Amino acid sequence: MNHSERAPMGDLNVLIVDDSPEDAEIHARMLRQAWPGRVVVRVAPLGEDGLSQLQVEPPDCVLLDYNLPDMTGLEFLAAFPGTCAVIFVTGLGDENLAVKALQAGAQDYLTKGRVTPEHLGRDVVRAIEKFRLQRAVTESREQMAAVLSSVDDAVLALGPDCGLLYVNGAAREQLGLTLGDPMPQWLCLTPLHAAVTAVLGGAARQMVEFTDGKRWFEARVHPRPGGVTAVLRDVTRQRLERERLRLLESVTVTARDAVVIAEANPTLHPGPKVVYVNAAFTRMTGYAPEDILGKTPRLLQGPQSDRPALDRVRRNLKRWKPVDETLLNYTKSGTPFWVNLSIVPVADETGWYTHWISVQRDVTDAVRRGLLDAARRDVLEFTATGRALEDILDVVCGLLSSSLPGHAATIWIRSGQTLHLRAATGHLPEDLRVDYTGSGRTVDLGLQRGVIHQAVQSGRDVIVPDLLASDVPLYPTMHDLLTRHGVRSLWTVPLPASDGSQVLGVVSLTGDRPGAPDATESALLREVVELTVTLLERLDARAQLQRLALYDSLTGLPNRVLYLEHLGRALGDAGRSGEQVAVGLLDLNRFKQVNDTLGHSAGDDLLRQVGARLRAALRPTDILARMGGDEFTLVLPFRDQTQFESGIARRLREVFREPFVVAGQSVFASASLGLALAPLHGQEPETLLSQADVAMYGAKRAGRLLQVFDPRSQLNPQAVSLEADLHRALPNHELELHYQGVYRAGTRDLVATEALLRWRHPVRGLVSPGEFIELAETTGLIVPIGAWVLREACRQAAAWQAQRPGLSVNVNLSARQFWQLDLPDVVRAALDASGLPAPLLTLEITESVLLDVPDAAETLNALSALGVHLSLDDFGTGYSSLSYLHRLPLHGLKIDRSFVRALGQAPGAAENIVRAVVLLAHALNLHVTTEGLEQDMQIQVVEALGSDYLQGYLLARPLPAPDFQAQVLSHAVQAQVPLRARTAEHDPA
């Protein structure tokens, strides 16, 4: 028995809400005196406390004080949930307050000081009984109101004269009838009047339908003593629903989308039963009505249906919620297809859900297109970010398996006469992946057997609809292998190069059912082939470009960047293994004589032959690279120095013993090799190379083949003197800037000038930059000198704006400057001091900055934020990584002059390199400047290849500022577009 059902004279549970502990104790004592049973009293000093306790355990009665610290008793009653009797208690004898309390829900009212135990006990019993009676009455009223409100039909009682003796609320509301009136004229004109007359005449119950012109009613007329009773039901909605269903059925029969109606239960195993399918369902799935009626729609699911999506469908069905999902279904023949599935529950007139209506639209083409677009984005992103070929091809295999469920894909890439398995879908069994070609993970095209060979040789698709057909020749044991793994079909599609020159590989798919690809699947395969070929050709182009960046284009040997990587690795390995490493610098003697007498092509041929002989003479563990010109570098691990030196000297003598045949002539060549030994002479690569260089020149001077570095040779008085002079050059104003023009390709109008540092020594005159720039970087003087160059170049460019508005200035930054954290502040200060707009300053950096400075990217972003333009100098001579071209805020790049010189020596290869760089730069929205132009032919070629800007001695030599102003600015041809209008463009900035 809960609290509200306790007998009035049983146990008593009272809550006293009163902030006076004395009053609460008095009332509690009175109750215990007056009540015959056990009394449980709880006290709440605050209204909020009382309301909280009511939520925990409602009492039988609440004694409520009017004046509470946090609210009044009336405010308490306003928040009171009405779960028990309430007696209002106050020290005031206010009748108006008593009335308000009773109106607010209290059952009684007491005045403090006038209460006796007997009165209090009696009042509590009376209040509890009153509360229970009020609650019972309220519940009865609510139940009666619910019953009455649930009667939607109009009920009429008619006398013998058809007068209205009784009408219910629905009759008054729906028909506008009033008790005592005769039957309205409009009702007398309906079949209802005839039915009433018939029953009054002695007929049995009558049922008729009629309309008032707007609504339809179903009427049942029953005889009763002294008249009839008529019950009228509004059936307008049902009639409209029947008509709607008739129309819907006609639409469903002719609909293109599949429609399925199933019973609403059960939603669990074995699933709802199908009661209707339209013709489109049969066309889509192959299931005739007799195949599916009485069965569950889950018949359409298969091995690769999306389990999470099916779980979502079942959760929604269980909760009677609509479903909208894309699912993989299977036809009667086992062919997978995607549908957009829409399911809604259908209720009867009572609101009870009885059926599910499912509309299924075939979206196979759209899903495949979406998968293809997503794969294309992934492939392009992976390609741009330098992911491995296998990773990218895995995306393609995944696309095929997702788009063609039941098929496992493999991709084979050709290398010469061999095909290598480079990617496969994960669910393809390993033994099948390896064995179905009969040759493991490679296919030897020379064996001329198998479907893959046939596809490569013919360049056409090879489709085997049924591998288990009797006329299909199989390798031994292959029949059992295919049967065990359920493989029935094999589709092999070649990957032809875009120019049709060769087949790059094949895509091969094994299917779990027999059949050839239909038109849609064939179109998908064509798009996948096109995507894969594009991928392979882009990767090949990138590999060639990276090879140009890491390998010497003339000899095929590693260049400086790759050599330094190998050297660093060798020094690390030697430190762990206890070996020593010799760093060698080899220079050909009298090589210039070969170039001058036989020509540059002969010199190139000699370098290629020397490189080939050196590579053949060295051990596999030795590293050989070409640094440029006629210099080769070596990394030679060894353990015993004496044996090593004699061995390398012997091999070098063999290299140069026989003459080289160059330009049809026999040419004897010799070389000088300098060696620095690690760890004896140091561990830093650049230090060792510098020491090897010193040793090599020592060998040349001594006429020896080989010389090991002697630390005493580092003491060069001339170099020490030059360094001392360089420290005084800046404060003594011996440094100056020369300016060389940069011209727009095609129009040849002047758009920029490059500031070049020169040192006018008081004794030596002009010192070559090659002599002092490296010294400035080594000593750190390049930092203050570089800051001066920035200030002076910006000042001069700002001064020239009046004469040549929009003329920008290019300034070279060294790697050493990038080590300074305040480089952006130095640039900003130069701009602020000169007033030169930031877009008119271009900062040129070399690739060594990006490779050698850890925070170069952060500094470049900070410089770009200033508004200056950034350009990559000497592109192609370093690593030339696509990643930093893509990531860094660069505006342009310069093609190194070595490629321009090669235009006259090896036009085909050099033109291809320049073309590739221009195409790459433009694809990344970078402009291209070609420097080192000294011949008309070179300018014509680079303009034809798309270079944006030109620079070189043929157009303008570097000049001091006054001479540049007089000879270049005053005679510059005005461009068709004014320079002022081009300040927002990427003029080499």
UniProtKB/TrEMBL annotation:
Pfam families tied to this protein? EAL, GAF, GGDEF, PAS_9, Response_reg
Sequence ranges assigned to domain GGDEF in this UniProt record: 579-711
Alphabetical list of SUPFAM superfamilies matching this protein = CheY-like, EAL domain-like, GAF domain-like, Nucleotide cyclase, PYP-like sensor domain (PAS domain)
The protein's name: EAL domain-containing protein
Where does the record place the PAC domain?
321-375
Using the record's annotation, list all stretches that form the Response regulatory domain.
13-127
Q: Which residues carry this modification: 4-aspartylphosphate?
A: D65
| Lineage, broadest ranks | Bacteria, Thermotogati, Deinococcota, Deinococci, Deinococcales
**Source organism of this protein record:** Deinococcus rufus
